[in-house]
Every structure is written in C-alpha cells, then in structure tokens.
Amino acid sequence: MRGFFTVGQQRFSFLDFGGPGLPLLAFHGHYNEASTFAPLAQALTPRWRVIALDQRGHGESDRAQSYQRSDYVADIAAFHRHLGIGPVAVLGHSLGGVNAYQFAARNTDQVTALIVEDIGAVVNADWSMATRLPLNAPSRQAMISALGPTAPYLECSFRQFDDGWGYSFDIDHTVLSHKALTGDHWSDWESVTCPTLLIRGADSEVLARDHAREMIARGAGRVQLAELSAGHVVHRDAPDQFADTVRAFLSQLPAGQRASSASRTEARRYS
User: Fold this and answer.
1) What whole-number distance in Å separates Cα of residue 174 and Cα of residue 178?
2) pLDDT the model gives residue 138
3) CA distances (Å), origin 93, targets 33, 119, 222, 267
4) In-domain check, residue 251
5) pLDDT for the residue 254
6) Residue 46 is part of a domain; what is its CATH number?
C-alpha cells in the first residue's frame, strides 16, 4: 500500500508492503525507489513487514531544494515519527545505507538493528553514470534498449511523461545528491550502538574488501560481515541469498525488542 506524509512543503511517498510481521524500514540507493524492495518484502513475509521510503527527489516523493546529509537524515526521522512504531530495524542500500547508519548513529534509542548494503564509511561517490543516462525514449522498450545491461537496475524508476519515457528522479538533482554523499563518515559509523550487518557484493566496485574489513574492525564488536556473489546492487543480483542473509541476522534480535516494535506497527493505520 502506498502512503504519503508531508514535512513543511515537502511531500513524501512510501510503500508499506503489509502483513502481520515485524517492521523493517528500508532505504534505497540513487536511481531507485521504494519499489526496489518488493522482492525482499515478499521473501521476508510473514515474519517481517517491509516499509520503504521514496527518499527525497526519488519515486513519488517531491523533488527537493537540497540533498545534504542532514536533509536525508531528517527525512528518515520524520518518516519514523509518522509511522509511530517506536524502536525499529533499518536497512539501506548505497545512498540509503549511509542515510540509515547516520540515522542510527544520531538516534541510538530508536534503532534496534542496522543492515547496510554495499557502501562504506568513506564515500567517493561517482556520478558519471547520471551524466551518461539517456534523457528520454519514445517507449519503455526503447528505454530498456538504450540502457542495455543497466536497465534491470533502473526499471523500477521508469516513468511515462508527455514527451516520452524517463525516470522518477531528476538527473541534475542526482548529481547534487552524489556530491553531498561524498565524504568521511567514520564518526557516524563508529557511533552506531545497535547490532549491525554489513553486506558486501564480492564483485562490488563501490565497497572494497579492505574497507569493509576496516569497518568491521572499527565496529566495536557489533558488526558482522556477509559477502555474497554479486555486484553493488546485492539485493538485485542475488535476491534469494540477500533475503536469507537479512532474515538470519534479524532472527538474532532479542525477542523483547521485536515484540515491542511489532505491537506498535499493528496499532497504526496509514493513509
């Protein structure tokens, strides 16, 4: 089910994949949106209930004036308040991974577990892909053909407009977001206090193996590392293994924490 909420003049969209399970908040990467987590949500049900945000400038959420780190973290805090679910597990891929661990670092009492998919504590974001994307195409199939092997990773963001097919994100805004993502975020990574799972694609060009191991070493014993046979978008390249890994990690949460979040989720109705 799609829901909406507004913060100031900014309207946000999210997908609640439903079910009776425990809540898991999910945050996508650049070029994607909440619907990218549909296979994960299906795989985790009925034990877990995935609720995914279209982050600012993505999906059905509004474009924004700013894409700074503090903006994204504030958005997650507003999303969490809107849901009214109390302490919860969070998951993020790439851009969403940094957003998730920065939220967890700054709201330690609200995050019971953290899952970060293929992004580091130091990020040198490459926005060259954004500048190479075809701007529009006369049909969905033409867009797929123009993108080639990249198409499966962007399909969830395809949209039909009056002048043809394009994306649910703005390319110039994506570049701004990439630039703001670049930086040293070790202080946030080291400030997280909850159990953490770092998932790395073995063939990733974004998160180097040595850097992932340093993140484990600097994680104060709270971080586990899982390496799966995949590229940067692990949940797309290895969906079954990704879901199994997430499920196994979440099953380690103390029962009391899970029950508390679940009861609050069931009490809330979205509009």
Assistant:
1) 6
2) 96
3) 11, 7, 19, 28
4) yes
5) 77
6) 3.40.50.1820
| Closest C-alpha among 215, 158, 203 to residue 33 | 158
Q: Is residue 134 part of a domain?
A: no
Q: 59 falls in which pLDDT band (50, 70, 90)?
A: very high
- Of 88, 6, 87, 12, the residue nearest 56 (C-alpha): 12
In a domain? residue 59: yes
Number of domains the chain contains: 1
Axis-axis angle for helices 95-106, 171-181 (nearest 10): 50
Range of the domain at 44: 2-128+170-267
Q: Tell me which of 163-167, 233-237, 265-269 is least confident.
A: 265-269
Q: Which helix (H) or strand (E) element contains residue 142?
A: helix 140-147
Pair type for strands 122-123 and 158-161: unpaired
Give CB contacts under 8 A, 24+ apart, made by 139-148.
139/164, 139/165, 140/165
- Within a domain: 194: yes
> How far apart are alpha carbons 189 and 220 in whole angstroms?
10
161-193 tens-digit pLDDT: 999 999 999 999 999 999 999 999 999 999 999
Q: According to the model, what pLDDT value does residue 253 have? A: 82
Q: What is the pLDDT of residues 73-116, one digit of tens each?
A: 999 999 999 999 999 999 999 999 999 999 999 999 999 999 99
Can you give 212-266 as a three-state secondary structure string? HHHHHHCCCCCEEEEEECCCCCHHHHCHHHHHHHHHHHHCCCCHHHHHHHHHHHH
